[in-house]
Each structure stands twice: as structure tokens, then as C-alpha cells.
């Protein structure tokens, strides 16, 4: 009997040779695929694809990435991740396991949970002593045009970024049936949220506009984290802030929207 649920795996290994980054090994199974990498400076931009209409409840997804010393990589989803419901109240289970000894920027972009869907996501990032890592992800709490904000069952996301000790531990848990987006102290009715991290120090700030709330703070290790809630403009503002941070870091400019419709 063929299972109605899909198990998808993706493994990527990047190395540096002569100052240039190369995709040394790929393995994919199920709905996960990659396109050919694009050069940027000494690094690579690689698009991640999910075949089909989206991830269905009961599907299991695992992505493993190794970035060797000297390698510089930008990973991003080609399109938004759609989380779909399934029979039996099963969640989509997604595991992201990154070993970073070089420089990795990971931008999964927008995740859109559909009505009655559920997502269980865990990301673990192991950083070498000379590693640099940045990450930014966004959630639309449903399809706004269809009036589906807060119609999903739940989202649980856990993030652990560590070297020899834990650097950053983060938990996101949204349960609309118990504490919906409009509940005081949750999302105050805002339909989008954005979160990010990079393991170097930035200038902290906070801004509140008609579009929502957005800020950057520092961890105990002087690493930076970003949080925002609001409308679509807040997600675009977060991308602009990150572009400025990259420039201050001396990184070559890259138009991520050229490679991804999820941002």
C-alpha cells in the first residue's frame, strides 16, 4: 500500500577551492530539489524547490547542509512554503540541520499555513570557530485575501544555534484556537511576523509605525536577533535592514528577490 504522506530529504555540501565556492555534493529525495547554483562574488546562491502544491500534513522534510571552511553560500526558497492540511490531524514535520564552518546565509522566506494545517519545525545550527551565519524567515498567518488569517491549527518552531555552547535558542508557538493573533500580548491582530539572527554585533534599534513593530537586539554573546510583526511592509523593511547590515559587513550586494518570490 502506497503511503499518502511524503518523506523528503535534501543533503548539500559546499567547499572552497582556490577562493571559490563549489557545490561538492547533493542528494535529494521526494519533493525537495535544487536548481543550479549561481555565482555571487566568491560564493554561490542556491535555490531550494519543493515540488507540488505545498507540504501536506503528515509529510516529513529533512534538510542537511554542510558549509566547509572558506565556502560562502546563500540558500533561499524559490517560492513561499505552503502548509496544507491532511486527514488525521497530522502536522508537517520539518527538520533543518546545518553545520557551518564557512559563511551561510539562509532565507527560507514566507511560510503560509492554510486552514486546519499544522507545522512542527526544528532548526539546529552548529557553528565552527570561524563561521558566520545569518537567517531570516517570515510567516503570513494565512491567505489574507481569503480571510484565512488565524485559521490554521498550530505552528511550533524551535531554533537552536550553538558553537561550543548554545548561542541562541528560540521558540515560536502559535495556537489560534487558544491564543489567536488578535489576543492581547500575542500578535495584536497583525497578519505577518518576521524573525532573524546573525552571529555578529549590530546596533540595536526599535521602531513602531503604522505598518507594525520591528527591532534588532543583542544576545549575551553580542550576536544580533531581529523580530517584527505587522503588515507586508514590515517584512520588506526587515529585508532592507538586512541589506544594510550586509553592506556594513562588507558583503557583496545580492538581489535576493531575483532568486526568490518568497521574500
Explained architecture:
With 263 residues, the protein is mostly beta strands. The protein has one domain (7-259). The chain is built from two helices and 19 strands. The protein has helices spanning 232-248, 256-259, and strands at 7-17, 20-29, 32-34, 38-40, 43-50, 55-56, 60-67, 72-77, 81-84, 92-100, 103-113, 118-127, 132-140, 154-162, 166-174, 192-198, 205-209, 212-218, 224-230. The strands form two sheets. Strands 3, 4, 5, 6, 8, 9, 11, 13, 16, 17, 18 and 19 form a twelve-stranded mixed β-sheet that branches. The protein has a seven-stranded mixed β-sheet with strand order 2-1-7-10-12-14-15, with no helix packed on it. The protein is globular. The termini are far apart. 38% of the residues are buried. The mean pLDDT is 94.
Short description:
The protein is mainly β and 263 residues long. The chain contains two helices and 19 strands.
Largest sheet: 12 strands, mixed
Q: What is the general shape? A: globular
Mean pLDDT: 94
Strand content range: over 45%
SSE arrangement, N to C: EEEEEEEEEEEEEEEEEEEHH
For the termini, the CA-CA separation is 39 Å
Tally of DSSP β-strands: 19
Q: Note poorly predicted spans.
A: none
Helix content: under 10%
Q: What structural category do the secondary elements indicate?
A: mainly beta
Number of helices: 2
Tally of discrete structural domains? 1
Q: Radius of gyration over alpha carbons?
A: 18 Å
Amino acid at each position: 500500500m502506497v503511503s499518502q504522506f511524503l518523506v523528503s530529504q535534501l543533503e548539500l555540501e559546499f567547499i572552497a577551492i582556490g577562493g571559490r565556492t563549489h557545490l561538492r555534493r547533493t542528494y535529494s529525495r521526494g519533493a525537495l530539489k535544487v536548481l543550479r547554483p549561481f555565482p555571487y562574488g566568491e560564493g554561490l546562491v542556491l535555490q531550494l524547490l519543493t515540488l507540488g502544491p505545498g507540504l501536506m500534513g503528515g509529510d516529513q522534510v529533512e534538510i542537511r547542509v554542510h558549509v566547509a571552511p572558506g565556502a560562502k553560500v546563500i540558500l533561499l526558497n524559490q517560492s513561499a512554503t505552503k502548509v496544507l492540511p491532511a486527514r488525521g490531524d497530522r502536522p508537517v514535520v520539518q527538520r533543518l540541520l546545518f553545520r557551518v564552518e564557512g559563511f551561510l546565509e539562509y532565507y527560507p522566506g514566507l511560510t503560509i499555513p492554510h486552514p486546519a494545517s499544522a507545522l512542527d519545525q526544528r532548526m539546529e545550527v552548529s557553528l565552527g570557530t570561524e563561521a558566520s551565519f545569518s537567517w531570516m524567515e517570515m510567516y503570513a498567518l494565512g491567505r489574507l485575501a481569503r480571510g484565512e488569517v488565524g485559521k490554521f491549527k498550530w505552528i511550533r518552531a524551535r531554533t537552536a544555534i550553538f558553537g561550543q555552547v548554545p548561542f541562541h535558542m528560540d521558540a515560536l508557538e502559535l495556537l489560534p484556537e487558544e491564543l489567536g493573533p488578535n489576543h492581547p500580548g500575542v500578535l495584536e491582530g497583525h497578519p505577518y511576523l518576521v524573525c532573524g539572527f546573525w552571529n555578529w554585533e549590530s546596533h540595536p534599534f526599535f521602531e513602531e509605525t503604522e505598518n507594525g513593530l520591528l527591532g534588532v537586539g543583542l544576545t549575551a554573546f553580542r550576536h544580533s536577533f531581529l523580530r517584527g510583526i505587522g503588515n507586508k511592509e514590515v517584512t520588506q523593511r526587515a529585508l532592507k535592514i538586512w541589506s544594510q547590515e550586509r553592506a556594513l559587513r562588507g558583503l557583496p550586494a545580492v538581489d535576493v528577490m531575483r532568486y526568490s518570490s518568497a521574500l
